[in-house]
Amino acid sequence: MSVKLYLLLIKASLRSRMQYKFNFLFSVAMASCIQVSEFLMVALVMMRFGNIKGWTLYEVCYLYGVMMISKAIYRTLASDVHHLEKYLVSGDLDALLTRPVPVLLALMTQNSRVLFAEIGQGIVLLVISMRVLMAKGQIEWSAVPLTALMICTGAVILFAIGLATAAAGFWLTRIESLQNMTEDASQTAARYPLTLYPKWLQGALLVLVPVGFVNYIPTLYLLRHEGGIGMLLGTVGVAWVALWLAMRFWKLGLSRYQSTGS
To answer: Under a CB-based contact definition with an 8 Å cutoff, are residues 214 and 190 in contact?
Structure first.
């Protein structure tokens, strides 16, 4: 029932946004330009030096693509979780509390939009990188379904991180700076091999904010054949544990929320 209701709410939200076609097309074009320029800078550096600490351009391209698609799925399916602060500051969360649906479900389906640019470019990066890696014999066709699994678990992990950060807003109210660290900065860092960073930062990206499990850890197994299948199974386990903890934290925060009308 909840899944059916969620899909109906998402459909209604998307339909309302598609009424403004020019704004939609313009936002897609701008997002495409930003994403392309960011990756081109990295690609140009790697084409000049060949590799970074043993990681080739196509391996980094793979990491980048997985992170891009996982993030786009999370932001598509749970758009306003990232924008909870505005609901807390304006008091608009009270309106969601009065709806006959769970608050989180209502929040996730507000202002939904499909991030076509990010998903499309992520797919292009994965297709290019995987074709080259297959030609080199580094991976086989079995990597395709395993990559799909990585993307799904990655989206769950990013959602869990975003939800836990949003839930902190029930105590802090202003969480933009916290989101800059736990979501934006950490996800940008995880687009590249974690071996580029000092040990303390690697630990933070694997334990405190586990974005390293979105792409880096499973990639060690898939592209570099390190650690065995346990690397992938462990990633699935991390995804579900992170989701469970985030949901518990959300429910705790929501129980302590003081409505503006009280």
So the answer is: yes
User: Which residue is associated with the tokens 């990681």?
Assistant: 55
SS (H, E, C) 160-179: HHHHHHHHCHHHHCCCHHHH
Give the SS3 label for residue 106: helix
Q: What type of residue sits at position 225?
A: H
**pLDDT of res. 34:** 60
155: tokens are: 């989206």
Cα–Cα nearest to 6, from 115, 93, 79 = 79
Q: What is the 3-state secondary structure (H, E, C) of 28-46?
A: HHHHHHHHHHHHHHHHHHH
Per-block mean pLDDT, blocks of 10 residues, the chain (262 long):
61 58 58 62 66 87 93 90 90 86 86 80 91 94 95 96 95 92 91 92 95 95 89 93 97 84 48
Distance between CA 222 and CA 125 in Å, rounded? Answer: 16
Going by C-beta distance under 8 Å and a sequence separation of 6 or more, which residues neighbour residue 155?
70, 71, 73, 74, 77
51: β partners = 56
Is the pTM higher than 0.85? The answer reads yes
Residue of 87, 138, 147, 142 whose CA lies nearest to 111 = 87
Beta bridge partners of 52: 55
